[in-house]
Amino acid sequence: MAVIPMKKMTLFALRHDRKKLLEFLQRRGVVEVTDVPLSDDLFQKTDSSRQFAHFDRCQNSVRQALELLDSYAPEKKPMFSSLQGKPELTQEEYDRQVATHEEAISAARRIVVLSRSIAEQKAEQARLETQAASLRPWLSLDVSMRFRGTRLTQAFIGTVPEPLKLESLLTFLAEEAPDAAVHAEILSTSPDQTCIFVLCLKSRSSEVEAALRSHGFSLPASPTKLSPEETSADLAERVQKLGTQIAKDEEEIVLFASMRPRIEFLVDYYAMRREKYQVIDKLSQTHSAFVLQGFMPAPAQNRVEKDLEGFCAAAEFSDPDENEETPVLLKNSRFTEPVEGVVEMYSMPGKHDIDPTTIMSVFYYLLFGMMLSDAAYGLVMAITCFVLVKKFPKMPASLQKTLRMFLWCGVFTVFWGAMFGSWFGDAATLISKTFFQTDFTIAPLWMDPLKDPMKLLMVCFAIGLIHMFTGLGIHFYQLWKSGDKIGAISDVGCWYGLLIGLVVWLMNTDMLRSMVKLNLAIPPAVIAAAKILAGLSAIGIIVMAGRDSRSPFKRALKGLYGLYGITGYLSDVLSYARLLALGLATGVIASVINQMGAMLGDTPFGIIVFILVFLVGHVLNIAINLLGAYVHTNRLQYVEFFGKFYEGGGEKFTPFAANTKFFTFKEEN
After folding, report:
1. What is the DSSP pairing of strand 88-89 with strand 664-665?
2. For labelling alongside 639, which of 82, 131, 265, 560 has CA 20 to 30 A away?
3. Cβ distance 537 to 495 under 8 Å?
4. Distance from C-alpha of 346 to C-alpha of 96, rounded to nearest angstrom
5. C-alpha distances out from residue 152 to 143, 210, 235, 621, Å
6. Cα gap 132→563, rounded to integer Å
7. What distance lies between CA 529 and its chain's CA centroid?
């Protein structure tokens, strides 16, 4: 349970060593670089916005190339590839990749160009296919759609906005142009239009045109120079050629699949370079030298000092000023370290906080196990997490912490499940009775929650009081250590007295005895002492809660309001009823699943149904109740526990490091 102390480092070095020195610090990843203020006109800052823009463009380009490779040539990965960790590169391998990175850049650019070409060709294909579709109604026309007749005749090629038969077309032409001799053809008919071809003498063309116009005749929007059939064949040929070219371009992209590792390297390479220039912007520099400042964990000082001996640099290490904000880095044991992520999600410890991880971890595992409360579920969790952690030691550190956290949660779930006698609910009893006609039961080591829920509820409240009292105790320690002894006694000690007095008094009431069916022989003197303790503590809260106000009236109001805080403690205690609720829910649902599976009895089909229902039902029950236990355990820590003493507000230690996605540097000693 510790916050690692920080050292402030000020580094002075020659400017021509800047690249090599920054890359060294980035690989080491132990210094959080801070902005160096300008001390005089000799020093200056750099503006790396152009470099940022360049690296962003390059990184976006190679990322796009990777996405295209994944689309055209998906990489087959093992089921647990995300747990295997990133490939390691030595410094020599990294330098070799950097020396040949132009080839990978060219490949990435070519992939992007090919993809753009494919997109353009597919768009052209779609355009040509649309044109071909528009020609289908005209395929029976054996002349150009631009044909307008001969020297003596006039041709009309177009559409009428209604379905027509040849007889109807000839009829209205005869009625409206009786003196004109016409030849008419129906090329195609649809519910929306009719494509027609009409031929007449030029001397009567105006009469025929007027007759056609009266029925909504219109010319084609895009008449073709060749006949529709010839144009359609030409379009089909062009579409086929485009398809052939698209296939060639796609094959060429697939051939770049062997370049995927090198393109992935480029993503990390540009990210690292961008981060390096972000650090450069924080430096104070002259034409020949620069100054770097930052924080680093105190235990790393000796190693960094030794490593810097190979550079033309001088480093000063000092303790941060008392009022200076320093980044926070936690250090805990293998048992408690996994729940550091829970603390980080809330807030890192502030200057006046202690690291709550160790104390919280015990309650976290205990409360989680009590909420899930099925020994078989706990075994499944613990074994699964243990196997994954051992089989994939190079998995990301955050994921490994999470799995180790659930491993310990599983162990405590086994404990509570055994206490309550829940192993996949009542699976042992039901299976033995249904399929083996025997009576076999795994008895609880302590109690059956379904038979005595009120007793378990009181246990939950007792655990909640211990949890809250621990938080108050930490607050007492913090106040006392900071020198506020009056605050420790009035703000914590009085609440201890009030709550303990009320609890002892309640334990002697008939209502509580009947609820928990427990007759505690508490001596009358102890009861009287508890009442006096509660009364004096309440008076102390009223008197001391408003001690900062000069006005007696305001002090009285603040004191009464402070005592009103007892309602908050009551609601906090009641919050621990969720331990009972979620624990019962897990067991009841598990038992219902078992009963549903066994409904068809001891038959071959019934056995198959039982196995299927058992597997699916319990997997879903584990998933749902595991999520519920996780959420509510976090809530009990954040609200009921942290709310008693924890301020937070610290900033997590984020060193200048190689924050890569696809590879990691191999440690070299």
Report:
1. parallel
2. 560
3. yes
4. 43
5. 17, 19, 33, 88
6. 85
7. 54
Residues of the chain short of pLDDT 70, as ranges, are: 1, 39-40, 515-520, 667-669
Q: Report the length, in residues, of the chain.
A: 669
**Rounded-to-integer distance, Cα 405 and Cα 207, Å:** 92
**Tokens 């020093």, located at residue:** 43
Whether 579 and 455 have beta carbons less than 8 Å apart is answered as no
Q: Which two tokens stand for residue 277?
A: 């220039």
Phi first, then psi, for residue 607 (nearest 5°) are -65, -45
Hey, what are 432's tokens? 């033995």
Which amino acid, one-letter code, is at 186? I
Rounded distance, CA 103 to CA 62, Å? 12
Q: What is the pLDDT of residues 415-468, one digit of tens each?
A: 999 999 999 999 999 999 999 989 999 999 999 998 889 889 999 999 999 999
Q: Are strands 182-189 and 194-201 parallel, antiparallel or unpaired?
A: antiparallel
pTM: 0.86
Q: Among 461, 545, 535, which Cα is nearest to 498's?
A: 535
Nearest in space to 650 (alpha carbons), one of 344, 430, 407? 344
- Quote the CA–CA distance of 162 and 281 in Å, as a whole number: 73
Give the span between the Cα atoms of 335 and 372, in whole angstroms: 20
The confidence score (pLDDT) of residue 118 equals 96
